[in-house]
Every structure is written in C-alpha cells, then in structure tokens.
Amino acid sequence: MTVIKQDDFIQSVQDALQHISYFHPLDYITALGDAYEKEQSPAAKDAIAQILTNSRMCAEGRRPICQDTGIVVVFLKIGMNVRWDATMSVTDMVNEGVRRAYLQPDNVLRASIVSDPAFGRKNTKDNTPAVIHYDLVQGDTVEVRLAAKGGGSENKSKFAMLNPSDSIVDWVLKTVPTMGAGWCPPGMLGIGIGGSSEKAMILAKESLMDHIDMTQLKAHGPKNKIEELRIELYDKVNALGIGAQGLGGLSTVLDVKILDYPTHAASKPIAMIPNCAATRHAHFTLDGSGIASLPTPNLKAWPDVTWHPDRNALRVDLDTLTPAEVASWKAGDRLLLNGKLLTGRDAAHKRIADLFASGQSLPAGVDFRNRVIYYVGPVDPVREEVVGPAGPTTATRMDKFTELMLEKTGLIAMVGKAERGPVGLEAIRKHKAAYLMAVGGAAYLVSKAIRASRCVAFEDLGMEAIYEFTVEDMPVTVAVDASGSNVHETGPTEWKARIRALPVLS
User: Fold this and answer.
1) Domain containing residue 164
2) What's the pLDDT tens digit per position in 266-318?
3) pTM above 0.85, yes or no
4) Residue 345: which of 445, 444, 461 has the closest Cα?
5) Of residues 475, 345, 373, the one with CA closest to residue 434
C-alpha cells in the first residue's frame, strides 16, 4: 500500500505551480515557433515574436509569463489503495500548496481570487481556493494534473445545448468569432461534447491538459471520428483569419482538443474553452517515494526569435501629449510610449464612477487630463524590479466606463488588450480619442519598459489600484484611431479573404 505524506503532496503542488508560472510547456513553444515561421501577417508575426521573446525571458528570469497568474484548477486521480499520512484533507492540502506557491518570496505570483463573488468580491490575498476535480480509480498512486487558468481566456468560455441533429462544426465556426481576441490567440481550443451541462464544461477544461500534437496528428492521419473532427476544426478555425491577438493572420489556434461522454438521447451539450498564450499546466504522479520533480526545460529548445521594436515606430512623449497628436495617429501605427501614464482597471473604474455619481471629485493627485490610462493589474515586484510582469488586461471590461472617463476626466487614450466592444468604440469615435493595444502574453517583456512606479490612489485595491508608471519605449499598436478605424475588424477581414485565396485552403 502506497503512503503519500502530507508535506510531499503540498510541496509538489507548490513546486508545480511555480514551475508553470515561468516555464511554458515545450509542446506549446514548438507549435508557436512553427506558427511564427509560417506567419505572413506582419502584425501577427510581431505579436508572436513578443510572446516567444517574453517566454524565454521568463524562463531565464524565473518570473511569471503573464501578470494574470490564474485561477488554479486541479484534476486528481487518487488510487483507491493509497493511504494518506496527513492531518489535513486533500482539498486543504491542495490549497496550502497554492497558498505557498503564490506567496513564495523569490517569485511572488499575483493573487487574483475574490471571495463573495456576487457582492463584496474581496481578494483572498493568496489565490485560494483552487477548483478541484476528484476521480477515485484503481491503483496505488495519485496522479495530479493542474493548471493556472487566466481570466481573459476563461471569460471567453462558451456553452450550448444543441439539438441532436445540429452540426458541431457549424456551432464552433459561428461561436469562435464572438470570442474576440481577449483569450490571447494563438492558443488551444478545448471542446467537451456530451454528458450533462456541467460535464461538458469539465470535459472541455480537462482536454486542455493534453499536449499539443496537431502536427503529428495531421502527419499520420486520423484514426477515428474525433480525430477527424479535430483536424477539420483546426483548419476551419484558422481559416477565419482572426490571427495572433486578433490582428489577422494564419494562426488562430495551435490545436483543438476534444473529449466526449455519453449523453441523453434528447441532448447534445457542447462546451468550448480556450487556452491563451500563457498556456500553463503540469502533470505529475506521486507514488510514495517523495516530492514530485518536474524537469527543467533546456533553453535551447526555444526558437531563435528575439523581438525588436519596429524601426518605423513613432516615439510618443506622454508628458506633452495633446488631443491633436492623438487624432493624427492611424489604426495600425506602431508606437513607443515614453513618459508617465496612469493605470486602472475594473475596480478602479467602478470606484471613480461611484465618486462621480455621488458628486465627489477624483482623489488628490489623480489627474487624467491629456493623459493615457493603462488597463493593467501588475504582479508585485521582487528583488531589483520596479514592477513585476505587467501585461494588459482585456479592454472590453472597461467599455461601460469609457464614455464617463473620456467625458469627465479629460482622458485622451487608453492601452489594453484585444478588441473594444460597440459601446467603447462609440465613445472613442465621439471624443476623438484612441485605443492602443499591447500584446497579451508578453507581460515580462512589457514590464522591462517600466522605469518607475508609484501608487497614487486606491491603495487598498492592491494590484487594481491606480499607479503612475514612467515608461521608456513601451510598445503598442494603434488599434482604434480617432476616426473609429479598427484593426480588430480590418485585420481578420483581410486575412480571411487572403487565406481563402491560398491554394492549400481553396
């Protein structure tokens, strides 16, 4: 009978979460490197180069790939012959491993989990609790598969109860474009088919734990209907032309994973969950011999890709920026930001809206006139860092505040991730402002452009407080210009047509 010690289990969970915070799975890196080589869209190729460069920097510096270090999801297969040498429950042991991992001093991870989700939404400060799925199986080992799932990709999860005769392919192709680019493509799509509503969602999430093997699958050919469906969806989703970061290009997904389960004769549940550019998961097995060990990947396995700023990029002085200068930018322009900008995301925007609604003014020291705001929730700094990884968050969540911010504060431009929705776009057009896009999945790379940081308001909000960053050559792209021209509309439209004309897909 195998005996699993409490300390070994906790330490293994802690070590695995630290490992995946800064090491991409090599199958993802290989697939992304292949996508980079094949990519023909300059904007998409630049975005992939940033992601690959960021990945190597994180592996070298042992710092998080993304500022959103995720909600921890764990799948456990516990052998029925296992005995625990423990005083804590398995759930408590998992959460203790999470707590220690996210508070580890030499690589602090961002705590993103809030309790009382319907009302108070108070941060738990240590990223607990995890979401845990249990399966009791024959055997005498404990198999652990865990992931750190970012909110941007998790928020794009989709579910439907199809009729038995409905087409899965049609549903996927109709649904993927509605997900936008907030899930930071290129990544993976996990699909669950069958069971009940909740089972389909679990299947989709579990499928994302599998290795990327689409190249090998297409080389040896499908062996069953599910593998045929995976290939069909992979080809047809990429033919949509959404591309890296939604900018238009050849690679939207690197793989499509599918798990299925028997279902009711009247039902056809289907769930789809994307994995982002910060794909993070690890697998290990405890057999009673001690702490699990994950191999350190060889940095030579990373593609020889190093991102450099576009030589034609326009350097912008944020400290002297004017509405007229913002109005001169055109969608697709590459900019390098220099000077001071303010940060703020969901909680800060809500608090500002509440202040205005009650007749109050902005806090002392907060002045958005002719300023740029960066939608970000950074990781706490360690060692000599000014700030930890500080990539952009999904901009659409701020859409409902955009009119207020542009009308009441004098703000003239915003930096975030992915596309804007109709409400945000209308406010940008109305006020002749601009929306600038930074690359999701390049958080550590972006943080190196931040030379100074200080909290100026709402310190109690932690990573959601308002900070003032001093930046040097921070790379962004004009995603929406003052006239309303929008690269997240024009890019995919252009590349969908181009892909359709390619001989291999025509």
Assistant:
1) 3-286
2) 999 999 999 999 999 999 999 999 999 999 999 999 999 999 999 999 999 99
3) yes
4) 461
5) 373
